[in-house]
Amino acid sequence: MLLTVAVAGISISGPLIAATAAPALAIAFWRNALAVAGLAPVMLLRRRARAELAGTDRRTLLLSLAAGAALAAHFGLWLPSLHLTSVASSVALATTTPIWATLLLRLLGHRPPASVWLGSVVAFAGVLLLTGVDLTVSAEALAGDALALGGGVAGAVYVLIGAEVRRTTSTTGYTFLCYGAAAALLLPVCALAGDSLGAGYSGETWLKLLALTVASQLLGHSLLNRVVRGLGPSVTSTALLLETPGAALIAAIWLGQSPPAAAYPALAVILLGLALVIRGERTA
């Protein structure tokens, strides 16, 4: 049930970001900063939470901060792509996280079965097909694809580090440190980019930022960080495959945004490849 809520929350993220009249990097900052503000009372008022935070060892702290840096990179790359290419293409490429996670695990000594490599090849073929479609649309769409793909790589680092930290740390403690680090890193990036963090924002924009924080950050990412400890990264990643059709459906209904017809086969190939990767990991 928690995983279903998490996937639903994350699925609305792409369309909601595309519909929010604020700079992409500013949106990335606020969704993390507002989440930290929401978690702060829990950390301050609960004795157990305060004790856990005070007793955080050096390894856990460094890993949580590293996860925050990876999350900041994920948002910093993916969110701008939503304004350059279609929501469906952007989300599909950003959710290639399981492929990159598999490759990173291989570098760390994990030996995936042949079906995982087959799935990786199939999914990557889908990526090439999708980027080829977007190249015919515009160079801007292709740039958006590249950013989304980079966001998927950063997302893999975030998931792998998070799975390790969650072995010994509570969801609240980990997310508080992780989101705090992400917000702290994104703040100077916004300043360097010259992105406004509030000037000229309408009430509607602030409501959308709040909705994004609650739905996608607190109910989405936080619940994923909770269930990954029990379900494992493979099962959790499998569920994330539903984000692509979910986001595409929401974008089509709400924003009237549909990718080119030729993009649908590419999206299907990517989903097939990712499914093979996860199935191979689960049977390993």
Structure description:
- There is one protein chain.
- The mean pLDDT is 83.
- The chain is 83% helix and 0% strand.
- The chain has helices at 2-11, 13-18, 24-45, 47-54, 58-81, 87-94, 97-107, 114-137, 139-165, 171-193, 203-240, 243-255, 263-283.
- The protein has one domain.
- With 284 residues, the protein is mainly α.
- Helix 3 (24-45) runs antiparallel to helix 5 and helix 7 crosses helix 9.
- It is built from 13 helices and no strands.
Mean pLDDT, all residues: 83
- Helical fraction: over 70%
First-residue to last-residue Cα separation: 26 Å
Radius of gyration: 18 Å
State which percent range the strand residues make up.
Answer: under 5%
Short synopsis of the structure:
The protein is mostly helical.
How does the SSE layout of this entry go?
Elements: H1 2-11, H2 13-18, H3 24-45, H4 47-54, H5 58-81, H6 87-94, H7 97-107, H8 114-137, H9 139-165, H10 171-193, H11 203-240, H12 243-255, H13 263-283
InterPro entries: EamA_dom, EmrE-like
Protein name: DMT family transporter
Transmembrane segments: 61-81, 87-108, 115-135, 141-161, 173-194, 261-278
